[in-house]
Amino acid sequence: MFGIGMPELIVILVIVLIIFGAGKLPEIGAGIGKGIKNFKKAMHESDKEIPSNTNNKSNN
User: Fold this and answer.
1) For residue 13, what pLDDT is reported?
2) What's the confidence (pLDDT) of residue 31?
3) Quick one: CA torsion of 33, 30, 18, 20, rounded to 10 degrees?
4) Cβ pair 28, 20 in contact under 8 A
């Protein structure tokens, strides 16, 4: 996972906990989750909007 091991993840989580506090962590997690969900939705919608050139080729 991007070359990040368990010790590095623990250090990052401790730093985030110190900076934001335990009360803010659920809000941060929910915000990240919503962002990922919206990104996936936008990617899926863009796939539907772009017409496939393989089906619309014209023979000249």
Assistant:
1) 87
2) 93
3) 120
4) yes
CB of 16 closer than 8 Å to CB of 25: yes
User: 9 is written with which tokens?
Assistant: 């993840």
Residue with structure tokens 């939705």?
41
Query: How far separated are the first and last CA of the chain, in Å rounded?
Result: 49
9: alpha, beta or left? (left if phi > 0; alpha if psi -120 to 50) = alpha
Reading the block at residue 59, the tokens are 């023979």
* 3-class secondary structure, 55: coil
pLDDT in tens, the chain (60 residues): 468 888 998 898 899 889 988 888 889 889 999 999 999 998 888 777 776 555 555 555
